[in-house]
Automatic annotation (TrEMBL):
It catalyses: 6-phospho-D-gluconate = 2-dehydro-3-deoxy-6-phospho-D-gluconate + H2O. Pathway: Carbohydrate metabolism; Entner-Doudoroff pathway. Binds 1 [4Fe-4S] cluster. This is Phosphogluconate dehydratase. Residues 408-601 form the Dihydroxy-acid/6-phosphogluconate dehydratase C-terminal domain. The keyword Cytoplasm does not apply. The keyword Iron applies. Its cofactor is [4Fe-4S] cluster. GO terms for biological process: D-gluconate metabolic process; Entner-Doudoroff pathway through 6-phosphogluconate. It comes from Aminobacter anthyllidis. [4Fe-4S] cluster binds at residues 156, 223. GO terms for cellular component: cytosol. Keywords: 4Fe-4S, Carbohydrate metabolism, Gluconate utilization, Iron, Iron-sulfur, Lyase, Metal-binding. Belongs to the IlvD/Edd family.
Length: 607
């Protein structure tokens, strides 16, 4: 099978490219690993500070070097619906650890911001960099060296990638990720999108819009559309960092709590003090990373992971590229239709068979590496299951259903929705970009139209309100890259461009910013690199230039003579308004150090 051979060949080229950096990384992991409890290197004064608030029996245990101690890294806050359930998890984990003969302590907290709250607001310019802050915050918690394994409580957009970077930076420690699950289904996403469009056109008021939004985002758990948060959960399971079947169980249920307790006990079982040591840095290798990319394509996941996966892999000395991600997309069929790639939400995906069905289908056709190590042990096949609550309150697992519960949501490999995953690299005289085509109709994947250039999403929205956009055009939104303003998601453009497309216009977006997993039905060439602030050609496009976006051929061009484009002066954009307010002044250093989008947009070296 061509797909199987392609997966092997791409994995091998990643392994070869990463050989030197991976060997250096694994050497560091080996140097950090100990044969006794890690706290054994601490002085008596160090240790006394580390267990000062523990019970007498815990102090006795921690004073020796035989009892394993779990460090809990939590992203709990009660403003963010996806992370609010984590309030009770530390006690669940501590109780489960005690039952298993170990100890657990909260090692530290990390920030967790919600892009849904900050979309279109100044705070959105901190979002991408929050990933690196989260990684560093987790590192501070774990740097006390009191711990033999770590349990990471995180769900949403930048939180999980940041925690993975931290987990791999402390690669000598076993790491288990514990999710909180999606909120129950509310107002269907397509109905919510219709109300947004009606509001943008002035046909309904703010009261109607707020009512629709509140019915959609209505309780604890992740948003139910398939954006970055739920893509994170898919990745953690298919890469073996969750326990099997853990991703999409709703919060506040007995099964959710049972999975959390089980994860704590499993973390204790895989420390260096036992017989099944599984350090995260050795566990996650090139095959695990490729499995994650395959899962992203098979489910039509978030474009944000074309940045995050590169940064996550780099933390383990693995050099993943956009071309790898694009080539894997060509080899992997789309098996899931979850909004915005369909009408159903992630709860429907779970009910149709969920991750167990998906993993089994991909394994059976050879599109996943089965011979990986996971937190559950050897091989990915044990993840082709469905987790259920046993009669005694523990987790039991059954083989994933042989048939999909709804083939309109989750298809078998023999009935894929399309032969490729729908993520593609575009290249041309405007640089390189990413496009997600799984939600874009085939007839809209090639757009050639005059450019309309804006330096902000607000500029485009104001032009729409003024009635200036009723025509065919390619919106070029520049100065939105990591160095310019932190690369915010330009989600506010989705509704306006969708309206214009529904009116019959040919429209597309080209930007050095981000759009996330909710980019939707409008063709969008995003993450354009080099960005405008670094002299990228996107900054030299003028109003009226003909731009051609061809997602089939993989090209992104402005149709002007090469000499003319090069001779155009560098554009000037006043970014002073992006440098302060809502904490942005504190992130000046991050903007200066930020890497390119195709290198993971990181503000620090990870390999």
């Amino acid at each position: 099978m061509t797909g199987r051979n392609d997966i092997q060949a791409i994995t091998e080229r990643i392994r070869e490219r990463s050989k030197v950096s991976r060997e250096i990384y694994l050497g560091r992991v080996a140097d950090a690993a100990g044969k006794t409890a890690n706290r054994g290197v601490l002085s008596c004064g160090n240790l006394a500070h580390g267990f000062a608030v523990c019970s007498p029996s815990e102090k006795v245990a921690l004073g020796g070097d035989k009892v394993a101690n779990i460090g809990i890294i939590t992203s709990y806050n009660d403003m963010l619906s996806a992370h609010q359930p984590f309030e009770t998890y530390p006690q669940l984990i501590k109780d489960a650890a005690r039952e298993a003969g170990g100890i657990a302590q909260v090692a530290g907290g990390v920030p967790a911001m919600c892009d849904g709250v900050t979309q279109g607001q100044p705070g959105m310019e901190l979002s991408l960099f929050s990933r690196d802050v989260i990684a560093m915050s987790a590192a501070i918690g774990l740097s006390h060296n009191m711990f033999d394994a770590a349990v990471y409580l995180g769900v949403c957009d930048k939180i999980v990638p940041g925690l993975v970077i931290a987990a791999l930076s402390f690669g000598h420690l076993p790491a288990i990720f514990v999710p909180a699950g999606p909120m129950t289904s509310g107002l269907p996403n397509d109905e919510k999108a219709k109300i947004r469009q009606l509001y943008a056109e002035g046909k309904v008021g703010r009261a109607e819009l707020l009512e629709a939004e509140s019915k959609s985002y209505h309780g604890p758990g992740t948003c139910t559309f398939y954006g970055t948060a739920n893509s994170n959960q898919m990745l953690m399971e298919i890469m073996g960092l969750h326990t099997p079947g853990a991703s999409f169980v709703n919060p506040g249920t007995p099964l959710r709590d049972a999975l959390t307790r089980e994860a704590a006990k499993r973390a204790l079982a895989i420390t260096a003090l036992g017989n099944e040591y599984i350090p995260a840095g050795r566990m996650i290798d090139e095959r695990s990373v490729v499995n994650g990319v395959v899962g992203l394509h098979a489910t039509g996941g978030s474009t944000n992971h074309t940045i995050h996966l590169i940064a996550m892999a780099a933390a383990a000395g693995i050099r993943l590229t956009w071309q790898d991600i694009s080539d894997l997309s060509d080899a992997v069929p789309l098996l899931a239709r979850v909004y915005p790639n369909g009408l159903s939400d992630v709860n429907h995906f779970q009910a149709a068979g969920g991750m167990g069905f998906l993993i089994r289908e991909l394994l059976d056709v050879g599109l996943l590496h089965e011979d990986v190590q996971t937190v559950w042990g050897e091989g990915l096949r044990p993840y082709a299951v469905e987790a259920k609550l046993g009669a005694d309150g523990s987790v039991v697992r059954e083989a994933a259903p042989k048939l999909s519960g709804d083939e309109k949501v989750l298809a078998p490999a023999t009935k894929a929705f399309q032969p490729s995953g729908g993520l593609k690299v575009l290249g041309g005289n405007l640089g390189h970009a990413i496009i997600k085509t799984s939600a874009v109709k085939p007839e809209r994947r090639i757009i050639e139209a005059p450019a309309l250039v804006f330096d902000s999403q607000q500029g485009l929205n104001e032009a729409f309100k003024a009635g200036l956009l009723d025509r065919d055009f390619v919106a070029v939104i520049r100065f939105q890259g990591p160095k310019a303003n932190g690369m915010p998601e330009l989600h506010k453009l989705t509704t306006v461009l969708g309206i214009l497309q529904d009116r019959g216009h040919k429209v597309a977006l080209v930007t050095d910013g981000r759009m996330s997993g909710a980019s939707g039905k409008v063709p969008a060439a995003i993450h354009v690199t080099p960005e405008a602030l670094e002299g990228g050609p996107i900054g030299r496009v003028h109003d009226g230039d003909i731009v051609r976006l061809d997602a089939e051929a993989g090209t992104l061009e402005v149709l002007v003579p090469a000499g003319d484009l090069a001779l155009r002066p560098e554009p000037v954009c006043d970014l002073s308004g992006n440098e302060y307010g809502m904490g942005r002044e504190l992130f000046a250093g991050f903007r200066q150090m930020a890497g390119r989008a195709d290198h993971g947009a990181s503000a620090f070296g990870t390999a």
